[in-house]
Amino acid sequence: MLIGFGILFFILAKFGWPVILKMLANREKFIQNQLEEAAQVRQEMKNLKSEHQQLLTEAKTERDKILSDARKIVAKMNDDAKLRREKETDAMLAETREAIEHEKMKALTEIKNEIAGLSIEVAEKILGEEMKDAARQEEIIRKWVEEMRIEN
User: Global pTM?
Assistant: First the structure.
């Protein structure tokens, strides 16, 4: 049995152990390569995650900038529209005031003309009554001439 064990040990030592050790070494290399690849993939994932975070941050910054610009544009448009409305309102008020003033002057002129016409009518009637008599006519004419001389 000892001789059988020795022969088996010799055959295994000569042919089996090198193959087994070689397989173990290959297996160890394979596992080591897999571990290195996993570490490399893990590092790449970290890099991708940080790039993703950076892109996300840049996108948020760009979004905020665009929104801010849009708000400024809207505010400017509102201000411009308000100024335009105010100018139009002021122009309309000025035109209305001018039209009112024009109509007022027209009405005053018409009233003055009407008063003048009525005054002339009244004066004609009064003078017509007073001028029927020739002596009265001469007296009134002398009085007017005297008043004209005094004023000059």
Answer: 0.43
CB 140 within 8 A of CB 131: yes
Cβ within 8 Å of residue 130, ≥6 positions away: 136, 140
Token readout for 8 is 């088996």
Give per-residue pLDDT as tens, 35-73. Answer: 999 999 999 999 999 999 999 999 999 999 999 999 999
In contact, 135 and 141? CB cutoff 8 Å: no
Q: Which residues contact 98 (CB under 8 A, 6 or more apart)?
A: none
Count of domains for the chain: 1
Cβ contact 62:70 at 8 Å? no
Cα dihedral sign, 6-8-14-18: negative
- Phi-psi bin for 133: left (phi > 0), alpha (psi -120 to 50), beta? beta
Residue-number span of the structural domain to which 110 is assigned: 2-151
